[in-house]
Amino acid sequence: MEACTQKASAVVGLQWGDEGKGKLVDLLAPQFDAVVRYNGGANAGHSVVVAGERYSLHLVPSGILSPGVFAVVGNGVVVDPERLLEEMKTLSDRGVDVSKLVVSDRAHVVMPYHKEEDALREELLSTSVSEKTESKGVIAAIGTTKRGIGPAYADKVQRATAIRIGDLLRPAILREKLTMICSMKNAIFAALRPDGHTAFDADAVADEMIALGEQLRPMIKDTAYLLDDVRKAGGTILFEGANATMLDVDHGTFPYVTSSNSSALGMGPGTGVPPQCIGRIIGVVKAYSTRVGGGPMPTELFDSVGDEIRVRGREFGTTTGRPRRVGWLDLVQLKYAAMISGATELCITLLDVLSGEDELKLAVAYDMPEGRTDRFVADGYALVDAKPVYETMAGFSQDITGARTFDELPAEAKAYIKRVEEFVGVRVGIVSVGPDREQTIIRD
Ligand code: IMP
Description:
Layout: E1 8-13, H1 21-28, E2 34-37, E3 46-50, E4 53-57, E5 70-73, E6 78-79, H2 81-93, E7 101-104, E8 108-109, H3 112-128, H4 131-135, H5 149-158, H6 171-192, H7 202-216, E9 220-221, H8 223-232, E10 237-240, H9 267-271, E11 278-286, E12 289-291, H10 304-312, E13 325-327, E14 329-330, H11 331-341, E15 345-349, E16 359-368, E17 371-373, E18 387-394, H12 411-424, E19 428-432, E20 440-442
Parallel strand pairs: 1-10, 1-11, 2-5, 2-10, 5-7, 6-8, 7-9, 11-15, 14-16, 15-19
Antiparallel strand pairs: 3-4, 12-13, 16-17, 16-18, 19-20
The chain binds inosinic acid.
Inosinic acid is lined by residues 16-18, 43-45, 142-145, 147, 149-150, 242-243, 247, 256, 258-259, 292-294.
């Protein structure tokens, strides 16, 4: 196989999502020929501010805001066609050119019954689990985004009950498949909700999906070949991670995770680009921690400091509007995530939000029932027992949103960044001090 002359780059979250990946992708996208999503679906929420205008993207890669760059929805993404079309329309109405958007024919479709199943399972989990069984390890609810992500990925692995984007273009086969699938789904729903469930009508679902497929037809492609063509022509690729490393189904805080490989490890299977073609991996990390939904978060704050950071950082979900849980930066977790995602460089975001705190805390170890450790515990049940061991650093009070070089930052902010680099062992190459493209410090 020919060598990869132009290595691809990647932007991936190193916490529990919402690290500000969208802004970074948007900033870097003009240097690339294709920006590619490889995992997740409409559970992701990337906010990008361009010239004072805020865009909220869920399924469309953030690269769409850079004219002339392919915005590729890879095979590893689960696509809700209705939401994708809605998002494209909103972007077009605001003058964004969406003609370079391409969707893999092998991406799986989030069907109406997936969304219902997601909501129903969450409801059943939260109502059927007593406090007693929960303490034995039975989870109450994952706190999903209810976008149908888990059930769509479950059907992908199940195979016979899966629908891929390419299937939407084969009406006769799709109709036949949906007859079988809807009868199975209806039986499951009837069992899960014995007090009544509106059955899915296979023909109605097929009509809706065929119509949506027709609208998507021009952008449905074999994106593995498209990306290979880009590379062979000397072009460059930027991967846009969605969700984040700690939500990775294999390496995150299972079972409180999403259903895809949302660390950098998902890039190959989610796009068809081989691993040796991937070079620079920028791990994005907030200057503090946040998490949406259930699951342990060792450094979570329940006091007024947490509330202040939540308000200053506008920590309310882009996808669901839920208030995010807020905590101090957890270096044990960050170092682990940098290891799993193979970060070659870090980008610290929302540093400006910490301005005003007298002191800043960093978790450097955990006290576990077995003793002290500096290793992350990648298990949602065991991590509950982790008590963070903090190091305290001086805070800063200056407004840093106008800083454009590292040297313009207050000494305390520089010391904080240097401590992160030292602990994690990866250089901080980029610092974001505000939502706008311009509010970014690129270090030499
Ligand atoms: P799901 O991906 O909707 O199944 O949700 C599983 C868990 O991942 C929940 O705790 C969600 O809140 C969380 N999650 C999924 N996507 C994101 C994201 O993009 N940002 C933050 N949390 C997310």
